[in-house]
Amino acid sequence: MNTAEKATVYGTEDLLISLCSSVTRVLNVATHSQVHYSGMVQRIGRTCLKPDIGCFVLFDGGFSGLVILNFSAQAAMELYANYLLNMGMSKDDLASSYTSDEVSNVMGELMNQVVGDFTGKVRREMQTHITQNQPKMLVLNKQVMLSVDANLDKPEARRVTFYTGNNHLFYLELAIDRTEFIKLYDFEAQEVPDADALMAQAQPLPPAPPPPAGRDDTDALLKSLGM
User: Fold this and answer.
1) Which residues partner with 67 through β-bridges?
2) Virtual CA dihedral for 156, 161, 76, 66, nearest 10 degrees?
3) Entry pTM
4) CA 226 to chain centre
5) Could you give the CA distance from residue 227 to residue 222 in angstroms, rounded to a whole number?
6) Helix locations, 87-187, DSSP H
C-alpha cells in the first residue's frame, strides 16, 4: 500500500461535523438543554440570513469561510431564556420579545462561544490557525433574504437543521473555500485545556500559618540551656 492510499483526508463534511459538534456542545452546556442536529446535510448554492434572527461570523487564516445561524423566534427565545436562567437570572427579568436587543446580544455571545470552540478544535486537530471576527446579528421581522459575500474563490456551502430541546428549529449554514486536509504523519491532537485547572494554578498559594504565640521565646530558652 503506497503513501497516497494510507493518507487520511479531511474535507468539507469533516469540518462541518466538527462545527456542528461545537454548536451542540456549547449550547447544551450553556442552556442545560438537549440541542441536536439532523443526520442529513443540504448542499446549497449560497448562504443567506433569514428571519427571525440571523447571525454570521467570518473567519480567515489557514482557510477562509463564513458561518451563519438562522434562528426562528421560538428557538431564539428558548435558548436565550434557558441561558440566562442557567446563569441565575430571574424569569421576571427576561425580555418578552425576540426583537429585544438583549436577545440579540445573548445569541451573539452564544455564537461567539460556538465559533471559538470550533477554531480551537481546528488548531488542535488540523494543526492550522483561523481567526474570527465579532458575530454580527440582524433581527429580521419581515420575509427577506440577505446574501453575505465572504469573498471565497471556490466556495462550498452546506446547511444543517438543528432542533432545540422543545423541538424549535434553527439552521446552520457554512460556506468555505474548497479545501482538503491530508494527514502527512500520525500525531496526537492536543487535549482540550481544563479551564478550572488553569484557574486553580493561577491562584496564589495561601500564606503559611504564623507560628504559635510564644514559640520564639521557648526556642531561645531551650538554646540557652544547651537543649
Assistant:
1) 57, 174
2) -10
3) 0.78
4) 68
5) 5
6) 101-121
HSE, side-chain direction, 13 A CA sphere, residue 117: 20
Task: Kindly state the DSSP code that residue 100 receives in the 8-state scheme.
Answer: S
> 144 to each of 29, 58, 127, 168, how far by Cα in Å?
32, 21, 39, 20
State the 10-residue block means of pLDDT for the chain, 227 residues long.
63 94 97 96 92 92 92 96 95 94 94 94 91 89 69 89 97 92 78 49 46 53 50
**Which grid coordinates are listed for 197?**
485547572
Dihedral of CA atoms 98, 104, 108, 111 in degrees, nearest 10, equals 10
At 194, which helix (H) or strand (E)? none
Q: How many CB atoms lie within 10 A of CB 149?
A: 10
pLDDT by residue (tens digit) across 202-211? Answer: 444 444 455 5
Instruction: Tell me the angle at which helices 101-121 and 12-31 cross, rounded to the nearest 10 degrees.
Output: 130
Q: Give me the phi and psi of 158, to 5 degrees please.
A: -135, 150
The phi-psi region of residue 119 (left if phi > 0; otherwise alpha if psi is between -120 and 50; otherwise beta) is: alpha
Task: Tell me the per-residue pLDDT of 96-130, one tens digit each, with 9 for 90 and over.
Answer: 999 999 999 999 999 999 999 999 999 998 899 99
Distance CA 39, CA 22 (A): 15
